[in-house]
């Protein structure tokens, strides 16, 4: 089955056809680095990292670009308030961003371009738009003319007249039409600036991504992605600039993730429910946060509550515990002939996982397949005799899903399994020496840690108290 993607441009699911066989060129809009990111910013980082992981699982090579806006009105304002230089503020919050998303299991991008490192490309891009008649300079500012681009509004599915009715010219702006947007901004006194044919200044917001996407991925890319809030005006303007400049489609697929609500209310500073990613990570296992984020299809809104986060933790614990119990049981498994029905079940569940991900990266349904795989694994562990081949097939199936989801089978769990085994060996030796008091102490200690022992003719088995799904 081919991967299908819901394309914001066409408002339909479309089969994915790469520009180049076996390769994916993917651009994801990154943060403006003037502060720590909130969990709304964390969602696209997790979602599109998972998209990338699934492409790689399917054998694609992915060139993944995520940019940093490291000069902007907000960064300049923050630097002035902090009494710092713009580059220092930007560098600090880039590092903070990478720390946050790294904790959430996000892989390093192929490229992380910055505006300040792409200035020559941006200036050349703007100059060419002026030469082609799509932009104009006035008083040191440069503006793009949406009315000069016939298809303006096609991404957000709005007509030029609808857009015109909501547009305004702000105080100090010299643009000809309220719809016109800035490509280059004249520097104010003592403001960070770069030389250009139009005088000292810096880029507008939208032009940077057009220039960086072209530099690192080419004139046409496979996928452009970001939060739903970026579809208009940011992505609409990017598309207009790039297609006016290059005279070809900018991106073949446009992907946008939904919003995050906090306790059923839209997150905002005014409501006091604005949650920083670093604060959530400090309170909760970041793997649980990631698992929770992927429990809802990326295109839909997600409601963030402590109760739902706890539920995600319980579910993830059960999955990991099942994997660990499989690892334990493998030590006493053997080669059995009658395993085909179980292997068939595992193959069917693997197929369910891939069908879910092929269908517009439906992680919610992929997790459902993982839950079913966990349930079947736990059922298999009730067998008196188990096959090493089946155990390993269950483990491989679970590991494949978890790797695509970006959830690690944490080393701590495996170390804990080793600790349990060591204590079981000590308990066996104590019972052999008729030291039943010590054997009982070990059983009680393990029980307090959530480990349940079962003495069988084949030896002592153990499981975690919440292993059932």
UniProtKB/TrEMBL annotation:
Binding site for ATP: 269
GO molecular function: cysteine-tRNA ligase activity
Motif mapping: 'HIGH' region: 31-41
Ranges for domain Cysteinyl-tRNA synthetase class Ia DALR: 352-415
Catalysis performed (reactions): tRNA(Cys) + L-cysteine + ATP = L-cysteinyl-tRNA(Cys) + AMP + diphosphate
Record-listed Phosphoserine modification sites: 270
HAMAP family: Cys_tRNA_synth
Protein's name according to its UniProt entry: Cysteine--tRNA ligase
SMART domains noted in UniProt: DALR_2 (SM00840)
Span of the annotated motif 'KMSKS' region: 266-270
Coiled coil: 302-359
């Amino acid at each position: 089955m081919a991967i299908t993607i819901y394309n914001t441009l066409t408002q339909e699911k479309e089969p994915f056809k790469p520009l180049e066989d076996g390769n994916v060129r993917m651009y994801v809009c990154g943060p403006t680095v003037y502060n720590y990111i909130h969990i709304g910013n964390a969602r696209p980082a997790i979602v599109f990292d998972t998209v990338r992981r699934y492409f790689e699982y399917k054998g694609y090579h992915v060139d993944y670009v995520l940019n940093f806006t490291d000069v902007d009105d907000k960064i300049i304002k923050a630097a002035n308030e902090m009494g710092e230089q713009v580059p220092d503020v930007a560098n600090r919050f880039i590092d903070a961003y990478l720390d946050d998303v790294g904790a959430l299991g996000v892989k390093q991008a192929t490229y992380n371009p910055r505006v300040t490192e792409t200035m020559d490309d941006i200036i050349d891009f703007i100059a060419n738009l002026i030469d082609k008649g799509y932009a104009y300079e006035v008083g040191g500012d440069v503006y793009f003319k949406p009315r000069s681009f016939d298809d303006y509004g096609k991404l957000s599915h709005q007509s030029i007249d609808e857009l015109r009715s909501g547009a305004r010219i702000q105080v100090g702006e010299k643009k000809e039409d309220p719809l016109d947007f800035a490509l280059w901004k004249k520097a104010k006194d003592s403001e960070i600036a770069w030389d250009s044919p139009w005088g000292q200044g810096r880029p507008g917001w939208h032009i940077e991504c057009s220039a960086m996407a072209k530099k690192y991925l080419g004139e046409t890319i496979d996928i452009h992605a970001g939060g739903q809030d970026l579809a208009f005006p940011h992505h609409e303007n990017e598309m207009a600039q790039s297609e006016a400049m290059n005279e070809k489609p900018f991106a073949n697929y446009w992907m946008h993730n939904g919003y995050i609500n906090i306790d059923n209310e839209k997150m905002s500073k005014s409501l006091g429910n604005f949650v920083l990613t670093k604060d959530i990570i400090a309170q909760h296992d970041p793997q649980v946060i990631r698992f929770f984020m992927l429990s809802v299809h990326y295109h839909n809104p997600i409601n963030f509550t402590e109760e739902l986060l706890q539920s995600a933790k319980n579910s993830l614990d059960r999955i990991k515990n099942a994997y660990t119990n499989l690892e334990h049981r493998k030590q006493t498994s053997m080669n059995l002939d009658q395993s085909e029905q179980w292997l068939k079940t595992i193959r069917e569940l693997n197929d369910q996982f891939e069908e879910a991900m092929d269908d517009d990266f439906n992680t919610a349904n992929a997790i459902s397949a993982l839950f079913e795989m966990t349930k079947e694994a736990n059922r298999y562990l009730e067998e008196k005799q188990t096959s090493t081949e089946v155990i390993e097939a269950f483990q491989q199936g679970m590991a494949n899903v978890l790797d695509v989801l970006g959830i690690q089978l944490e080393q701590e769990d495996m170390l804990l399994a080793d600790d349990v085994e060591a204590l079981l060996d000590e308990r066996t030796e104590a019972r052999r020496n008729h030291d039943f008091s010590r054997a009982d102490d070990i059983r009680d200690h393990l029980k307090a840690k959530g480990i349940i022992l079962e003495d069988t003719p084949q030896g002592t088995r153990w499981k975690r108290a919440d292993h059932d799904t």
